[in-house]
Amino acid sequence: MxxxxxxxxxxxxxxxxxxxxxxxxxxxxxxxxxxxAALVAKKLGLSHVLVAAMEKAGEGxxxxxxxxxxxxxxDFASIEVPVVAHRKHPFDELNDVIERDPRxxxxxxPDGAGRLLHRRLRTLCEDxxxxxxxxxxxxxxxxxxxxxxxxxxxxxxxxxxxxxLSAARPAHADAMHPATERLHEADVLxxxxxxxxxxxxxxxxxxxxxxxxxxxxxGALLAEIRTLAGAARSEAAAPCAGVMPG
Length: 246
Fold this sequence. Notes:
alpha+beta; disordered C terminus; single chain; Defensin A-like; two-stranded antiparallel sheet; 54% helix; 12% strand; 8 helices; flat
């Protein structure tokens, strides 16, 4: 039997059990909100709780940084993680494989090249998800100029994603998503759902279970985000009474 190796997290001194957590609560910043943050930490099992920071994170939201002490410890020696042995590919070789056939790499290769491409594609999806979530919030607050700038970034990200998947099909996708003169939160949220559907498809494809329509999804998504960006630019350029500047 292997010797136990008990470990605990620590902040200032070894084994003090001090950890830092951060989170947002849907309440305005106040002493009551600070107490709520402390209670969250206590209900997670932390003791010696200290709310180190509280900041406004939007209208009706507060961000907290909280310290506390945990009594948790674990046996590091008992942790078992499977290790897959494979040849490490040089950086240039990985890029060469990806350039030759990115879709084949994603679907059929469990080695470094496949993992590298899969990680890059899903990172792009995560970036799109984050941008579109922020766009939806900006539209909700009538900050159209800010939304237009964010959508410009989203177009760039979606273009890179479509390029990796060899998915440029603008004529077909544009016909599905005609130009619009106004930017609506519901349209942004629908696009966000499609980003997550593409992310799911890429995850299935990496396991060899995808239905093969990732490239079409990426092309349609690019066209749709371009349409949203065009609507945002048009609306930001047109004077509109009662709308706050972005």
